[in-house]
Design a protein that fits this description.
Layout (H helix, E strand, L loop, with lengths): L2 H22 L3 H17 L1 H17 L4 H7 L3 H16 L7 E6 L5 E8 L2 E6 L4 H12 L3 E5 L5 H17 L7 E3 L6 H7 L7 E5 L2 H10 L12 E5 L5 H13 L8 E7 L3 H14 L3 E4 L1 H6 L2 H6 L4 E3 L13 E7 L2 H11 L4 E5 L3 H10 L4 E4 L18 E3 L7 E3 L5 E8 L7
Parallel strand pairs: 3-4, 3-6, 4-5, 7-8, 7-12, 8-11, 9-10, 9-11, 12-13
Antiparallel strand pairs: 1-2, 2-16, 14-15
Helix pairs in contact: 2-5, 2-7, 3-7, 5-6, 6-7, 10-11
Length: 429
C-alpha cells in the first residue's frame, strides 16, 4: 500500500467533507455567482488550458490513441466556449436544493416535509474527456456537493489546468477552494484508495471503459452510480418512412461514432430490409461504415452494392450484437416483427438508448412501453441522450442503473432528500 498517497487522498477527503458542510447551507446566489466566475476563469485561462491539452494530445499520438479517442481528448477555443456556456446554463437553472418534494400532516398534529438536499461529497473517476472535469465540478457545485475528481492519465495536463481555473472561480465567488479537488497523480492505486474512502465519499461515479467501471463496482465501499456499455439499437419498422430512417441512422451512427449514445445495432423489419439497404445501406457504406450482417440480411442485401464494397459488408457473429464498437462498425439484423426487435434489445442491449422508426403509433407505443432502457425514442436519433439536449445543461454522466438515477444525470440526480418533522410536544404512545 502507498501510505503517502493514501494520506494525501484522505486529507483531500477531509477537506472536501468540510467544504461540503458549507456548500450544503450556501445560498443559491452564492453558488450561482461562483459558477459565473468559474466560466470567466475558464475562458481567461484558455491559453494555459490549450497548451496543457497540446501536451496530452502529443502524448496520446505517441502512445497510439485511436482517432476517436484523440477526438474525445482534443480541446479548442470552440469547445472551451461550449464548456463555459454550459456553466452559465447551469447557473441559470433552478436550484435543486431545498425543494419541498412532499408535505403532509398526521392526525396527531405532526407535520412532515420531504425536502431535497445535497448528497455531500462525490467522487468521480473518469477517462479521456477533459470536459468532464468542468461538467462534473459545475453540476456538483450547483447541487451543493463537494467533488473529488480523478481523471485519466491521457488527459492529466488538461484536467489539471481546467480544475485550477475552476477553483479560482469558486474562490472568487465566495466558496472554499476545496469545493473542487483533482487527484494530483496518475497512479492507478488512487482508484483503489478512493473506493475505500467511505468515511469521506458519499458516492462514486465512474465514467469510462467497462474495465474501469467493473473495478470501481468491485472495490467500492460506498454507492456507485454507473453505466456499462452503450449498445444502442435503431429498429426500422415495416411502417417506417425510409428516408427518415436513413437520416436518423446516419446521425446515430456517423455523427460521433466514439460516444456511448451512438447506434451500434440496426434492426430491420424483413418487409422493408431490402429497400432500406438499397438506400440507407448504401449511404452508410459511402461513409465508410462496416456492416456486420446476419444471414437473413446478407441474403436481402442488393448484390451489386455488396460487391462494390466487399471490405465493408461482412457476416456478423453473435458477439457483434453484444458489442459497443465505438467506431464505424454497425451490426445489422433482420427481424420479423416489432416484438422480435424488442426481444433482441432485451437480450443483447445495455439499457442505454434505443429507437424505433415507424409511422404506426400503436407499434411505437408498444416499443416505447416495453423497451426497458433509460431513454427510448420514436422517430429520433439516439444521439439526443445527453444532458444538454434534454435541457439539463451539462451532465455528470448517463446512468443505466435504476437506483437512484437513470439516463442523463444532472442536478436533480445529484441530490438526495431528508424529512423534516415538526410537532408541539407529541410522544409516541
Amino acid at each position: 500500500m502507498n501510505e503517502d498517497l493514501t494520506s494525501r487522498l484522505h486529507a483531500m477527503g477531509d477537506a472536501a467533507r468540510k467544504a461540503s458542510r458549507l456548500l450544503a447551507v450556501s445560498p443559491t446566489g452564492v453558488r450561482n455567482a461562483a459558477l459565473l466566475a468559474m466560466a470567466s476563469e475558464l475562458l481567461a485561462g484558455s491559453r494555459e488550458i490549450l497548451e496543457a491539452n497540446a501536451l496530452d494530445l502529443q502524448a496520446g499520438r505517441e502512445n497510439g490513441l485511436s482517432p476517436s479517442m484523440l477526438d474525445r481528448l482534443r480541446l479548442d477555443e470552440g469547445r472551451l466556449e461550449a464548456m463555459a456556456g454550459g456553466i452559465r446554463i447551469a447557473a441559470a437553472l433552478p436550484d435543486p436544493v431545498g425543494r419541498t418534494l412532499r408535505e403532509w400532516e398526521k392526525e396527531n398534529g405532526l407535520t412532515f416535509r420531504k425536502i431535497s438536499v445535497p448528497i455531500g461529497v462525490i467522487g468521480i473517476i473518469y477517462e479521456s474527456r477533459p470536459n468532464v472535469t468542468s461538467d462534473a465540478a459545475v453540476l456538483c457545485l450547483k447541487a451543493g456537493n463537494a467533488v473529488i475528481l480523478r481523471g485519466g492519465s491521457e488527459a492529466f495536463h488538461s484536467n489539471r489546468a481546467i480544475a485550477e481555473a475552476l477553483r479560482r472561480g469558486a474562490v472568487a465567488g465566495g466558496l472554499p477552494a476545496d469545493t473542487i479537488q483533482l487527484v494530483p497523480v496518475t497512479d492507478r492505486e488512487a482508484v483503489r484508495i478512493l473506493c475505500e474512502m467511505e468515511a469521506y465519499l458519499d458516492c462514486l461515479i465512474p465514467r469510462g471503459g467497462k474495465g474501469l467501471i467493473e473495478t470501481v463496482v468491485r472495490n467500492a465501499r460506498m454507492p456507485v452510480i454507473k453505466h456499462y456499455d452503450g449498445i444502442c439499437a435503431v429498429y426500422v419498422d415495416t411502417a417506417a418512412d425510409l428516408a427518415m430512417a436513413r437520416e436518423i441512422l446516419l446521425n446515430a451512427k456517423c455523427q460521433r461514432p466514439g460516444v456511448c449514445n451512438a447506434a451500434e445495432t440496426l434492426l430491420l423489419h424483413r418487409d422493408i430490409a431490402s429497400a432500406f439497404l438499397a438506400d440507407g445501406g448504401k449511404a452508410l457504406l459511402e461513409r465508410g461504415v462496416e456492416l456486420r450482417c446476419d444471414e437473413a440480411t446478407l441474403a436481402l442485401f442488393p448484390q451489386g452494392l455488396k460487391e462494390s464494397h466487399p471490405e465493408l459488408v461482412r457476416s456478423a457473429t453473435e458477439e457483434d450484437f453484444r458489442t459497443e464498437f465505438l467506431s464505424l462498425i454497425l451490426a445489422v439484423k433482420t427481424v420479423g416483427s416489432a416484438d422480435e426487435a424488442i426481444t433482441h434489445i432485451a437480450t443483447h442491449g445495455s439499457h442505454h438508448s434505443d429507437a424505433i422508426v415507424t409511422a404506426d403509433p400503436s407499434v411505437a407505443d408498444r416499443f416505447l412501453r416495453e423497451v426497458d432502457s433509460a431513454t427510448v425514442y420514436w422517430n429520433a436519433s439516439t444521439r439526443f441522450t445527453d444532458g444538454g439536449e434534454f435541457g439539463f445543461g451539462c451532465e455528470i454522466g448517463i446512468s443505466t442503473d435504476k437506483l437512484h438515477a437513470r439516463g442523463p444525470m444532472a442536478l436533480e440526480e445529484l441530490t438526495s432528500y431528508k424529512y423534516l418533522i415538526t410537532g408541539n410536544g407529541q410522544v409516541r404512545p
